[in-house]
Design brief:
The protein is mainly alpha-helical. Helix content is 70%, strand content 0%. The protein is built from seven helices and no strands.
Amino acid sequence: MDEKEFFQAVADRSGLSRQEGADLTRATLETLALRLSDGEVRDLALELPEPLRDSLQQGRGEMKIFGPDETIRRVRERTGLSESEAARGVRAAFTTLQDAVSQKEFGHAMSQLGKEYAQLVESTG
């Protein structure tokens, strides 16, 4: 999956425009990177196309602990979308990420996030 397909999948899943899907994707990946170890960010980035890899790596910094609601709040702040749009968008981005990377790598990332983040991944099958 290239970055354009990723953005379109996020847009389709969230019911937003392709540009909003791209903005949501970038904001979600940057926020996700704050929740993951540097090693996990690196491993996840290796499975993404270059522009998405860059977004994930831009978010790197000191690992912080916060839940799904704070993730949505941070994405909302970065994108200027409403709370419901940001919530749909974050779920769409997580679900698309699950489709775009290996099951093993996605599982590793989710294990660092914790069980409460499972609500951000829609069933794809």
